[in-house]
Design brief:
alpha+beta; Thermophilic metalloprotease-like; eight-stranded antiparallel beta sheet; 11 helices; globular
């Protein structure tokens, strides 16, 4: 699946699927369909998900998602309530649960790959050719043997995870600019993400114990949801749930998203590890991997990590940890300080 503008990627992927003996179903999205739905659709139509789509996520063996867009701002004028409405239908949640559960069990294989397009290049303040080089570097395609490089990263990250697993209580304390957040990962699994699914990759993450999250956090970078920017996000948690939320821009959308069932709780806590990504491009596929950053996801949790939270959304929001005084402390020991590991 992916945008119709990525036809060369569809063709290349189809060749490899057929050579491997697979049976591809192509679902390219046509420009303008989302805008048309929000402009002319009823509430029932905006929430509608065809049973055929749900069947695909319940029965197909895997998904290759080509990530690109012709216009990242196409939904900028859409009422935030309609965007939240489209994400809160029971069918959307059924689809998300099927996807997350099958993904966690290994029954449903998936990969998300970026496609160099002008809209993404423009968001990153680059021309298309520079952006193409940026993607190559982020995916390590500039190396002689990219697979070997990802395997090296896999091993390096595994060493860090082994150290993290040595802490018995699993009590995590995050401090930084306007941030004082406590959570527990006791009994939860840390996942090593190094080129297996997300491309680009390079992060370690887990699903924190839902009710353990308390305190406050201010996010450095804007949260992007369906092309709309939500800037200067500040969240306060009490016993795992958001009790206060503000944003200097997109505050209405933030509050509408938090009304979605399960979206006011955290499903993921992660640390970015990709040293080839140094520029914030307003593309979460890249930005969440920036070394020296952390991100949390509101909504549906990481099942294979042990998370129990369920929601129709999984929304990553990013904080820079390279600023003075930023730390991650576990069991009283500083393990991460100002963007660098101490273990």
């Amino acid at each position: 699946m992916g945008p119709a503008l990525a036809k060369e990627a569809f063709q290349a992927v189809n060749i490899e699927i057929l050579k491997a003996g697979g049976f591809p179903l192509n679902t390219p999205s046509i420009e303008g369909m989302d805008e048309i739905l929000y402009k002319y659709g009823s509430k029932e139509q905006i929430q509608y998900i065809d049973e055929a789509i749900i069947k695909i996520f319940k029965e197909f063996n895997g998904m290759i998602d080509i990530f690109g867009d012709y216009n990242t701002r196409k939904l900028s004028l859409v009422d935030p309530k309609l965007i939240a409405l489209s994400r809160s239908s029971p069918k959307r949640r059924e689809l998300m649960e099927a996807y997350m559960n099958r993904m966690a069990s290994g029954e449903f294989l998936w990969v998300l790959i970026p496609y160099p397009c002008n809209s993404f290049a423009q968001e990153g303040n680059m021309d298309l050719f520079t952006y193409g080089d940026f993607i190559k570097k982020a995916l390590l395609l500039d190396k002689d043997d990219p697979v070997a490089e990802w395997e090296k990263i896999l091993n390096e990250q595994e060493k860090i995870i082994a150290k993290l697993c040595e802490f018995e209580s699993g009590q995590v304390y995050v401090t930084g600019e306007d941030t004082d957040l406590k959570l527990s990962v006791k009994g939860r699994k840390w996942i090593n993400s190094a080129g297996q699914h997300n491309l680009p990759d390079g992060e370690i993450y887990t699903g924190p114990i839902e009710e353990s999250i308390n305190g406050k956090i201010r996010f450095t970078y804007p949260g992007i949801f369906q092309g709309q920017e939500i800037e200067d996000i500040f969240l306060e948690f009490e016993d795992g749930k958001v009790k206060n939320a503000t944003a200097s821009k997109g505050d209405n959308l933030l509050k509408e998203l938090l009304k979605i069932e399960g979206a006011n709780m955290v499903g993921e806590f992660a640390v970015g590890m990709n040293y080839g990504i140094t520029t914030f491009t307003k593309n979460i596929l890249f930005d969440e991997k920036i070394s020296g950053t952390i991100h949390i996801a509101l909504g549906s949790g990481i099942k294979e990590a042990g998370s129990k939270n369920e929601s129709a959304i999984h929304w990553d929001i990013l904080k820079d940890m390279r600023s003075l005084g930023s730390k991650i402390i576990i069991d009283g020991k500083t393990i991460y300080e100002e963007g660098k590991w101490k273990i």
